[in-house]
Amino acid sequence: MLNKLSEALKSSMKKFIQAIFIDEKTLNQFVNEIQRALLQSDVAVDLVFEISENIKKRAKEEIGKGEVAKEYIIKIVYEELVKILGEKGHKIQITEKPFKILLIGLFGNGKTTTAAKIAKFFKKRGYNVCLLALDTFRPAAYEQLVQLGKQINVNVFGDPDEKNAVNIIKKYENEIKKYDIVIADSSGRDALKQDMIDEIKAVENALKPQEILLVQGADIGQGAKEQATAFKNALNITGVVLTKMDGTAKGGGAITACSIAGAPIKFIGTGEKIDDLEEFEPKRFVSRLLGLGDIETLLEKAKEIAEEKTPDKELEKRIMSGKFNLLDFKAQLEAMSKMGPLSKIIDMLPGFGMAGIPKEMLSVQQDKLKKFKVIMDSMTKEELEHPEIIKSSRIERIAKGSGTSVSDVKELLKQYEQIKKLMKGLKGKDIQKLAKRFKGKIPKLPF
Ligand SMILES: Nc1nc2c(ncn2[C@@H]2O[C@H](COP(=O)(O)OP(=O)(O)OP(=O)(O)O)[C@@H](O)[C@H]2O)c(=O)[nH]1
Ligand SMILES: [Mg+2]
Q1: CATH fold for the domain made of 295-441
Q2: Which residue did the predictor score with more confidence, 253 or 425?
Q3: Which residue has the higher pLDDT, 447 or 101?
């Protein structure tokens, strides 16, 4: 997410920290690099100018103080960036039941996907959630939501034959009352015109949602300001969900634009999968952007995944006694891929971001994990349970069956052996416990 911006900011910080002597020239260079990085991320020119002036002004007072000054100047950068993102987060507070969230937005910005993502987000937190299909405009919108609902085990109410969203709300009025949280999808349009405004207003009147969130792709960059302002003026939006943060270099522009428009960002969408959603917390966000780490987000993710799975006592026993087999290994790989790409995980670990592990290296690892999964799909149940029977003729068959090479299969077996040893050492601690171990050891932000 925002890789380019993050890498540019990290590399200029690294240079700055490594500089032996901080004078006005080094400082100006540093601020110019930050400027360039922000502009490339489509942050508005006047805003970039304002941030850099603030940083310079505050930092100049520190110049000449030596080592302390460097840290202090990084802190200033951090604070100024947090400031333009709106400082306090605007997390959704579930204040009453049923708590209704209506998602609105133009075509293809991610409303339907986000509805399912938010449903899962709250379901994981113990709420009883349902989805309400109010997109009566696009054919198959109902079916799309039903499919998503199935994936996350959440009930979906709707009627594909009904053309009036208000009638759907009336029809299910009593049903949805039984839930803690109701998330409603709605019809998109190609532009914010009167018919859309009328429809959303009618839906708002009938549903009485506590939150109306504008779902907006981050690829619009600075354009998010105009868009959010228009929606804010025409409809009572309470916030924004910025989607597609993973696929654009313009995310910085979109985030700052929403902040300027006074439209608080509640969530960001970071991928196509249902788990690719995060609550937006400016402080957390900036510290990750600057490579200062975000252990909290990582812990949360690890915890969620650990809670999703029923505790597997058998697996724990097997690991402890060293009877860890390829089936378990496969399950571990799947759990890992659920946490997201390695590069995302690494970004959240304090220190790693700054260490600058080359992304190419991580993507090689990622490809390897994918290959391992394909190889294991070509193994028989017996082989997965008793990897020790996999000798040369089987290796050849597996390589052929999976379209890989003998050395790929051997590498998988070698890695499995290594992990098995490691697991034995861990004595069955699962991901969550592993994450807990991090907690005490990772230093908090230096400020
Ligand atoms: N990469 C990425 N893709 C996303 C994200 N959110 C949604 N998408 C994709 O964007 C496309 C459109 O998503 P939908 O949820 O169907 O959008 P919508 O707003 O409901 O669209 P309409 O119903 O046609 O108005 C789909 O291909 C999604 O997978 C995100 O955070 N990252
Ligand atoms: Mg849709």
Answers
A1: 434 Repressor (Amino-terminal Domain) (1.10.260)
A2: 253
A3: 101
